[in-house]
Amino acid sequence: MKKIIALACAALSIAALASCGGSSSNTGSSEASSNSLIGQWAHDSYVYDFTDATNGKYIVSESTVMDFTYEAKNDTLSILYTGNTDPMKLAYKIQGNELTVTDSFGSDVVYTKK
C-alpha cells in the first residue's frame, strides 16, 4: 500500500512539474513584458522612450539623450546604456498607464505613459 501511495505521489509531482511550462511560454511572457513597455514614459522632465522590444532612449533634456538596449524579464528591467559594459538592473511593474521603477536607492519612481 505504501508503494502505491509513493508511486502516485511521484506521478503527481512529475505531472505538476511538467505543467509549469516550457521555454515557449517564457519567451512569450518576456515578449509581452517588452511590448507593454514600448512607448514614452515621463516623470517630470525625464522620459524613457522604449522604441521597440529591445532598444530605447533615456531623455534627460533636449541635449542629453542616452541610447540603450534593454530586456524585461520576471519583473526586472535590465538596461545597458551605449558605452557601458554592465547593465543596470531595476525592479519594475506596469499598472495601467503607470510604470513604477525602483531606482538604485530603493525609491519607487512613477512614470506616466504619454
Describe this structure in words.
With 114 residues, this protein is α+β, with helices and mostly antiparallel strands. The chain has a single domain (2-113), classed as Lipocalin (Beta Barrel). Helix content is 28%, strand content 46%. It is built from two helices and eight strands. The protein has an eight-stranded antiparallel β-barrel. Strand 4 (64-73) and strand 5 (76-81) form a beta hairpin. The longest helix is centred in the N-terminal third of the chain and has 17 residues, at 2-18. The relative contact order is 0.13.
Element layout with pairings:
Layout: H1 2-18, H2 23-37, E1 39-43, E2 46-50, E3 55-61, E4 64-73, E5 76-81, E6 88-95, E7 98-102, E8 108-113
Antiparallel strand pairs: 1-2, 1-8, 2-3, 3-4, 4-5, 5-6, 6-7, 7-8
- Compute the average pLDDT: 79
The CATH class designation is: Mainly Beta
The H/E string reads HHEEEEEEEE
Overall tally of domains: 1
Strand runs, count: 8
Sum up the overall morphology in one term: globular
